[in-house]
Amino acid sequence: MGIIEKIKEIEAEMARTQKNKATEYHLGQLKAKIAKLRTQLLEPPKGSSGGGEGFEVTKFGHGRVALIGFPSVGKSTLLTMLTGTHSESASYEFTTLTCIPGIIHYNDTKIQLLDLPGIIEGASEGKGRGRQVIAVAKSSDIVLMVLDASKSEGHRQILTRELEAVGLRLNKRPPQIYFKKKKTGGISFNSTLPLTHVDEKLCYQILHEYKIHNAEILFREDATVDDLIDVIEGNRKYMKCIYVYNKIDVVGIDDVDRLARQPNSVVISCNLKLNLDRLLSRMWDEMGLVRVYTKPQGQQPDFSDPVVLSADRGGCSVEDFCNHIHRSLVKDVKYVLVWGISARHYPQHCGLSHILRDEDVVQIVKKKEKEEGGRGRFKSHSNAPARISDREKKAPLKT
Predict the structure, then answer these.
(1) Which residues does the UniProt record annotate as the domain OBG-type G (predicted)?
(2) Contacts with 311 (C-beta within 8 Å, 6 or more apart), sequence order
(3) How would residue 281 be classed by pLDDT, with cut points 50, 70 and 90?
């Protein structure tokens, strides 16, 4: 029996098992088994020389956005509208067969937009090049899930389920659970608050399913069984996702209003070019890019070419800003002067730990190099030997 058949068999057993207090331990074990099998499904087969055929797209720009959706929902048209890059679009499904990159120039930054082939139900099991599409989505900073406003709401649940099956968690934060494997000492179970979904016995059973018999685990929130399995697996990626409803020109105003009021949702129409500016603005807010402008000493700030930082790519502190310019710059920094939202007054003297905000202006003041033999004009010490006997004798005066 293959891995996919085993997963389907366990899912069928979970579907026919009643959910109550008596069966929660059994259901927890089944969930752990499914998670293990899905991890094995994503691993390359043993003995394979390479990673298989994929989409080779070089990372470019200050951020990366992936377009994911069913076939014929308008992904290629949206890429052409936003970037100007031509992507083949037609009235039949699976027009796009490979990954097509484009560049969005927005707020002095360059954002890479990837048009991926449409995925179908069963993509997490490898149907329709689903694994390659999801692998590229994992390497992105944010996901745009393009949906057809005229179709049923079930498409969104199917796509979310397929992405969660391969370890992508959309619009969720990592669970507050501390987990560490140990060599000896058994399992130490603690929590800082009362737990309603997980107890000590269920936690032990799930850890034994993974053959973990020595570990330390601490719950800092009322987490579920799925959260605990995600922490044990350790390969989950938590990403931001914007649900983009296209083709709003073919539905009524009541449906458009209902879709627009849903969380993390934007309604657009590529055909009539409606609300594309709002989509770009929302994408910019979710990515959290920080533009920092440099100011040389005694000169005006350079507003033409900003240094772009982000919390997901390195951080937004002054130290990260210096490392972005050059790795050796940090040890030469004496202090920095900051103008902008993050400064309390203009200019503010800051250290390396100061967190920068969007459109801040930074001037770096470097340490002065010490002159040989002393500090500044005045020598702090003499070059003469310490002992009198070691001094050189002066030449005798001419007689």
Answers:
(1) 63-288
(2) 288
(3) very high
